[in-house]
Specification:
With about 290 residues, this protein is of the alpha/beta class. About 30% of the residues lie in helices and about 25% in strands. It is built from ten helices and twelve strands. The strands form two sheets. Strands 1-4-3-2-5-6 form a six-stranded parallel β-sheet. A six-stranded antiparallel beta barrel has the order 7-8-11-10-9-12. Strand 9 and strand 10 form a beta hairpin. The protein is elongated, with a radius of gyration of 21 Å.
């Protein structure tokens, strides 16, 4: 998928665009993408970074990094993505100016978006305005109980099944593998310690079954209470994996929440608990 940052980076073409923030690229988002693809023109997703609400002073904890969002959009069959940098200048554009300077400028003929989509200064523009301006507008009904905010709430509460039902795939946690304290290796369970990007949602503390790099995984999201830790960490033990992951970006799927984190009476009890977690990770079923 071609990724552009400004309209003039895209070559002239007749385009159908799907437009929105698309955090998480959930089932409702994919309806919008499918509506754009159905027009049988060059399909381009127009999306925004950072999230507009964060620029306006609101706090938004995201389901996906921009890099992961673009990967998921490519997997959904988009030809191109135009990632618009959200700043005061973009937010100050009138709806009409946005339609002309961004959409018309890249040859858009068809616009697909969710029915509640708003754009332009003060969120004054909507799909009806785009239709009045001559675009072929495809209104996509909102999927019932399907939103990024609901997925965030379920994931923050550790409800993996409910989050996966919205996303249509397992929720994920992402980060760069960094050096940890090596306790997992000493116990016989070497883990990848993830540095999670700021602003990315991390699920409820606990032990999870999941996968990464095609390997099932037992994943700890917590403070390591057995050793009196206080700093939240995300650590993944990849089953049957042997290799060096330091410095590598890792996307970890979460399949099932197995239990709360806990302190144990001895390291032997801790190892027994991890053994049980690994056994359950081997039989966990991928949601979505």
């Amino acid at each position: 998928m071609i990724v552009a940052r400004t309209p003039d980076e895209l070559e002239p073409a007749r385009r159908a665009v799907a437009i929105g923030t698309f955090d998480g690229v959930h089932r409702g988002h994919r309806r919008v993408l499918e509506a754009a693809r159905a027009a049988r023109l060059r399909t381009t997703v127009v999306t925004f970074d950072p999230h507009p609400r964060s620029v306006l002073g609101g706090e938004v904890v995201l389901l996906t990094t921009l890099e992961r969002r673009l990967e998921l959009l490519a997997d959904a069959g988009m030809d191109e993505a135009l990632v618009l940098h959200v700043d005061e200048a973009l937010l100050a554009l009138t709806a009409e100016a946005f339609a002309e300077d961004v959409l018309r400028a890249i040859g858009v003929e068809v616009v697909a978006a969710g029915e509640g989509f708003r754009f332009g200064r003060g969120r004054s523009g909507d799909l009806d305005l785009l239709a009045e301006l001559g675009f072929d507008v495809r209104h996509v009904p909102l999927a019932e109980n399907c939103s990024s905010s609901r997925a965030r709430a379920f994931l923050a509460a550790g409800d993996i099944a409910a989050a996966a039902a919205i996303l249509g795939r397992p929720p994920e946690v992402e980060g760069t593998v960094v050096a940890g304290d090596a306790r997992g290796r000493e116990l016989g369970f070497p883990t990848a310690n993830l540095a999670v990007p700021k602003g990315l949602l991390v699920p409820e503390l606990g032990i999870y079954a999941g996968s990464a790099l095609g390997h099932r995984a037992a994943v700890s999201v917590g403070t390591n209470p057995h050793y009196g830790g206080t700093e939240r960490r995300v650590e993944a033990f990849l089953l049957d994996f042997d290799g060096d992951l330091y410095g590598r970006r890792l996307v970890v799927e979460l399949w099932e929440r197995l239990r709360d984190e806990a302190a144990f009476g001895s390291e032997a009890e801790l190892v027994e608990a991890i053994d049980r977690d690994v056994a359950r990770a081997r039989t966990a079923v991928r949601p979505g």
